DUF4843 domain-containing protein
Amino acid sequence: MMKKSILYSLVIFLSVFLGGCEKDEPMGYRGRPGVYFNGKEFSYTFAENPWKDVDTVLLPILLTGDLEDYDRKVKVVVVADSTTATGDMYELLEGTISAGSESGFVPVVVNSVQELEHKVVRLRVQIVENEDFKELDLVYPACNFTFTAQIIKPYNWSQLEYFFGPYSTGWWKFIMEKLGRTSLPYWDLFSPIPNPDPDKYDMSYYEMSNIQQMIRLELAEYNKHSTTGPMKHDDGDYAGKEIVVPAPW
């Protein structure tokens, strides 16, 4: 009888103790709505789309907090003292997190003005508080978006590097010329860097493997007939070094 009484008292004590813990538990971070950019640096060049005078670039954003069954707006502003782009070059639009989604985009309309043919400009974009999102002290509350009409290092070169090695302007021009295209929208499914736009970067590993082999053969053919030796990087960190296509994965 004594043992049962002690056991009963212990059960009551644990119930009260655990109940008290539940009452005192602070509200989880998951419940606070917030939003931030999925990266701190983005870039675009009209050289990828030379037939366009205007284009819309989607800067990816991510949600913290609960999903909702309605669309939510994301307010953004331009940080003037960190921006070199002029007003005629762009239009920054309101961002959106769609109903039921944990990600969204901030659209930037870019204009192919003549000045972009010989310079790269920067747009510094900052998320600011609104009625939908008040939590802003997150990973990347702001980002730098650079754009131009010149040939520049593709934004996804961190993914293309596995197939083509280090970037240089001449090497990228050679690849584009041999492929007859101005971009390779590939993003590795297992990349530690999240794909910022799956609808855009949708090329498969199989396609890229075939392209890599084609470029390998084109480079070998170029080197075979070159009168100045193997092709070398013309700029960047590897300027002056021979270009070598990495071995297949």
The CA atoms of residues 223 and 230 lie 5 Å apart. The longest helix spans residues 2-24. Residues 153-249 form one domain.
